[in-house]
Design goal:
homodimer; about 250 residues; Jelly Rolls; Arc Repressor Mutant, subunit A; 2 domains; about 20% strand; disordered N terminus; DNA-binding; WH-like_DNA-bd_sf (chains A, B); DNA-binding transcription factor activity (chains A, B); cNMP-bd_dom_sf (chains A, B); Transcription factor (chains A, B)
DNA sequence: CGACCTTTTGAACGTATTCAACCGATGTGG
DNA sequence: CCACATCGGTTGAATACGTTCAAAAGGTCG
């Protein structure tokens, strides 16, 4: 009732972030909140921010103040060692939260870089903590989001620690596929937003190995690949490949 | 009161968990709490549990109900794939929290196994959430603990994704050393609680490679190793080795 | 004390990397 | 709008690193 949802000539740029209208609310922080609770969350999700392709949303070492919910676009996070080597720690897409690494010591510990023009919702962390003390549903869901990140990381460790090159790539493609499905896109056809080198960094492989593995998958009829455009032709085949590691 | 564990002469086993007396309180969940807050925490840290060497504290798939603070002892966590391959995701020592992985979907996603006779404090998770709604310091600290786990995992990804065998082992030894120091033990001399195979699983290497790398370090005068007994002779040397990856 | 598990070490092997050349796509400035 | 420069991707051949297989020695625990 006393909701926004304007009449006529309300300038688009004035429309505040409205989680309740966001089609990502089932993937994002508002999951499970009732409309009253959602309204409270909207109050603290203060602003949106645009990040152009190639730009950093935040940088390792910067003070941590807010989490970011990806409204649209695609990001990578990476960590860089003193000697220059870097490791991509994840690829994030719409509805996912960026910045959780910064809570630990109030400084970001990785870089977040937009792989395409993107838009994020700012969630000042002190506000989020305050609100989640009042809204148990939000509190619990936030804890689950953090925990899910830990579980995801364990999956990456498994991938890096025990899988061969082609298994890693298969796992990577299947994971992307799943996440696209959850967003209403095709599970079988998508554009990669990242380069072979970035995929390689994430998977602990060199870009040449990634490229060779793509070619091999194509030869075997598992996928059709043309640069960044991927069509998965045989999902069960990829799954089989993934779980038949060392024979 | 209606508790088990009979009375008689103030039996030692009756003494309740008392965070305020625990010498791990500066490493563990109570960090930063005042005495009133600590008292509240003690109320919910209900019981202790002994876990014998080789026994599982929890198992992947089991329903998640509580976190566990390690009071004494040493654990590993691992994840097992359908095809039997397994990945050690971490080694945990006193003052560290086990079970964070279970929050995400209310089921544990890894196994926690005691590598020596150990004792843990049970922290029922619903109680913890309730209390952390009342105690902002606790809430914030808990968030930091979870975030720290995420940052740690990123470090492991870096290790698995970009480091060579010897660098990984050096990083592993230096990490253990640091953690022992934080607990008042020697940074340079300690017993490994895990086998070469478990180290290898954690580091994404085979046990033979771990063994060979230990021998190499010994030849180079970096460490003295005798089975599970380690003496680090040249910490700066190990650090150098770790950061001079690909030349 | 004997059985078993862990660790060490050697030699052959295999997978991913490195180095290099080439091709195609993309984007910018004249 | 085209030409050119740059970046990203593919593919081949040689190499290197860690793995695999194997044997034996050293510890540990019933």
């Amino acid at each position: 009732m006393s909701e926004n949802r304007a009449l006529k000539t309300v300038n688009l740029s004035v429309i505040k972030t409205a989680c309740s209208n966001c089609n990502l609310r089932e993937l994002c922080l508002p999951l499970g909140l009732n409309s009253l609770e959602m309204a409270k969350l909207e109050e603290i999700v203060s602003n949106r921010k645009r990040v152009k392709r190639g730009d950093l949303l935040y940088r390792a070492g910067e003070p941590f103040e807010a989490l970011y919910a990806i409204r649209s676009g695609f990001f990578k996070t990476d960590v860089i060692m003193e000697d220059g080597r870097d490791q991509v720690t994840g690829f994030q897409m719409s509805g996912e939260l960026l910045g959780l690494d910064g809570i630990s010591n109030e400084n970001h510990s990785c870089n977040a870089i937009a792989l395409e023009d993107s838009e994020v919702c700012l969630i000042p962390f002190d506000h989020l903590e305050r609100l989640s003390r009042q809204v148990p549903t939000l509190q619990n869901h936030f804890h689950k989001v953090m925990s899910r990140e830990i579980v995801r990381d364990h999956g990456v460790m498994m991938l890096l620690g025990t899988m061969r090159a082609e298994e890693r790539l298969a796992a990577f493609l299947l994971n992307l596929s799943q996440r696209f499905v959850a967003r209403g896109y095709s599970p079988a056809e998508f554009y990669l937003r990242m380069t072979r080198e970035e995929i390689g960094s994430y998977l602990g492989l060199k870009l040449e190995t990634v490229s060779r593995s793509f070619s091999k998958f194509q030869e075997e009829g598992l996928i059709a690949v043309q640069q960044k455009h991927i069509r998965i032709l045989d999902i069960p085949g990829l799954k089989r490949l993934m779980n038949h590691g060392q024979g």
